[in-house]
Amino acid sequence: xxxxxxTASPLSRTRAxxxxxxxxxxxxxxxxxxQQHTARTLAAFVxxxxxxxxxxxxxxxxxxxxxxxxxQTDQGLVVEIGCGTGLLTELLHTPGRPYLATDLSxxxxxxxxARLGQRQGLSFAVLDGQDxxxxxxxxxxxxxxxxxxxADPVAGIVRLARQTALFAFSVPLHGSFxxxxxxxxxxxxxxxxxxxxxxxxxLAALEARAPARLVHRVEExxxxxxxxxxxxxxxxxxxxxxxxxxxxxxxxxxVLKRFSNGLDATARIxxxxxxxxxx
Length: 279
Ligand SMILES: C[S@@+](CC[C@H](N)C(=O)[O-])C[C@H]1O[C@@H](n2cnc3c(N)ncnc32)[C@H](O)[C@@H]1O
Description:
Blueprint: H1 10-23, H2 28-31, H3 33-48, H4 60-65, E1 74-81, H5 89-92, E2 99-103, H6 106-116, E3 122-126, E4 138-144, H7 153-161, E5 166-172, H8 178-185, H9 199-209, E6 213-225, H10 228-236, H11 253-258, E7 263-275
Parallel strand pairs: 1-2, 1-4, 2-3, 4-5
Antiparallel strand pairs: 5-7, 6-7
Helix pairs in contact: 7-9
C-alpha cells in the first residue's frame, strides 16, 4: 500500500487511485464479485422503477411520476461515472442508445472499450467524476460503486444528482465490513478501509441540496472469505486497495489469527434513484 505521505494532496490521491485501478484493469472483471452483484442489482432496480429515459422521450412509468422537459437535456444521453471494465455498462446500454462510459483510469476505460467498443452508440472518455460538469444535462447519469472514491462522496453524489433528470447509483455505506473494523478496533486501531458516507447524511444532503423524488434501498450483502488475506485480496486484486487518507500500516498478525477459520464480511450497499422534474 502507498504511504499516507504519498497521497496527502487531493490531486496526488486521485492520481494514486487511478494508478491502483489501472494496474489491475486486465484482471479486474475476473475478481470483481461484489461489483458484479451490485451492477446487476442496480440495473434491476432501475428497470423496476421505470427504466432509463427513452432516446428522446421519457418512458411511461417515469412520465407518470416526474416529467422532465427533454428539450433541456441531451436527448437520451446516458453518462456513466466510473465504468471500470463495463459491468454496469453492458447491462444498461442497448444498441443505438447514446451512452458515454467514463472512468478516471485510462486503463480501465481501455478494458471497457475492448469488451464493448463494438456496440453502436457507446463512446468512451477519461473523466474525474467528482469534478464532472455537463454543459447540457445528460438524460441520465449512472454509477456503480464508484462515488466512495471521491474526496467528498456526499458532495460528489449531490453534485451529479443536480445535473440530470435521473441519477442512478450504488455506493457502499458507513457500517460496511463491521467484522473487519471490529478486529482493528480490538487492537486500538482503525483499518485502512475507506471512510464511507453515512446513510442518514447522504439522504439528508440529497433532500436538502438536490430536491427530487428519491427512491432507495439498502442491502446487506455478506460474502464469505476463507481468510483475512482472501478478504484483503478482494480489494487488492481489483485495484481497490488504496488505503484511506492518513492510514499508517501496522502489524496485522492478530487480525490474520482472528480470521484463520474464515470471515463473513458484510457490505452495506445503498442503491439510489434521484429523479428530478426540473433542472
Ligand atoms: C470499484 S470500481 C467499479 C467499476 C465499475 N463501476 C464496476 O461496477 O465494475 C471503481 C471505479 O471507479 C473509478 N474511479 C475512482 N475514482 C474515480 C473518480 N473520481 N472519477 C471517475 N472514476 C473513478 C476507478 O478507476 C474504477 O474503475
